Fold:
Amino acid sequence: MKRDVSLTASALLFIMPDSPLVGKVSASEPSPVHQRNAACDLRKMRRIITEDYSWSLAMVPLLSDLSLQHIIHNFEHNPILEKLLPKHRSRVLERLSTALPLPVTANLISHEDYWRRCGTERWPSCDISHYGHSWKRLYFERHLENLIERFIPDLTDPEPICNAAELSKNYVRRLEIRQLLPPVKVEKRKEDEAEDVSDSGSEAGAESPSVDHFDLNLIAASLCDLHELHLVYGVRGCGMNFEWNLFRFTDRDCALLANTLRTFKNLKVFRLHRSEVDDQKVRVLIRSLLHHPTLVHLDLSHNQICDRGARAVGKLLNQSQLQILNLCNNKIRAPGAQAIAHALTKNNTLRILNLRLNHMGDEGGQALCNALLQNTSLEVLHIGSNELSEATATVLTHVLSHNASLKSVNISCNRIGLDGGKQLLEGMSENKTMLEFDLRLTDVGQESEFYMNQVLRGNQERSRVQAQQTQLFTSILD
Structure:
């Protein structure tokens, strides 16, 4: 029996030269001690090593891995996350499917890497800097925006949007709705039209849709912490199917939106552009914003607002805390500009005013400039493309000499002329605060424009030095 063990050990040494028995068992004259050791080592090896030399313990999954795999596969029906150890929790989050229902993941998973995977799979181009550097906020805001933009009145069920808004209430801070679809018109067949004709020969009235666009009141209660709302009542990419009816902000839409604005008590930025908003509708909206507690930015650009609407905006300036007002590309003429100018004489919060692409003329331009002789809060004024001339430049010269708050003025695309340019240069020579002055396409002359640019460079350098000194002083105090 001893000889057999010896021979078996020798054979293993010959076949497996890398065996741990090398140097312990001799094939020629094994001692009894060596024979017993070889037999013991052989039994241990035979327990873990088979004839397949590629076999390894790494091929057998750990029980913890099997458990985590089971948790991942059954997460939708039995979500287990908080009870796991941190290292196991991170492994589960790395392997969870991004197709899990939002009711399961919304309030359970806060790990940013998981929401980054969800966001980049749906939208390859993502910039989280616009979403507070939060992937979870990006996902919920864009998900809700997509649902609203695809809603078709009387065809789409609003319940999924309401459910998504309720799940998103802790994460959504801004909604940028780039389109709101109108109802779909279904053409009736001739046979159906014949059936609609009554016995008296008159046609039954066509049924009107319940709403003209999505009603934000359905989700307003769930989004009490909304800070920004951007809306366009129109269709994107309509192509050859263009119709003016696709870009209508109806009276019914206006009434519903006014009620919604009263609900959004924390709204800071409201933008309603490219929606054919006229005087009557803007007055309804302004009425709901007169006593709004937090609104600081109002954008009604690219609409159909005329003088009556501008008067309503002037009233809002007197009763709100607006800091930014954008009325670019409307139909405001001299009376509307005068109403806004009158409000500016009493306003001390507005910092940025954009009236570009209107028709206020010199009468409106002079009124605005006279108001700036009293206003001390406005920093940026844009009145480009407003049919202004030398008469407005004369009053603006006094503003440049006396106003110490203005830092940027844009009067581009107006007929200022050479004489107007010389007057502006006279005012700029006494100005110490202006940092930007846009005079493109005003025909003020190269010489006047050159010297005004020299003054601007001096003001910019002075401002830079003051900013450095302020920063240094602040760091010393800290």
Observations:
- Residues 2-55 form one domain.
- The longest strand covers residues 174-177.
- DSSP finds 18 helices and nine strands in the chain.
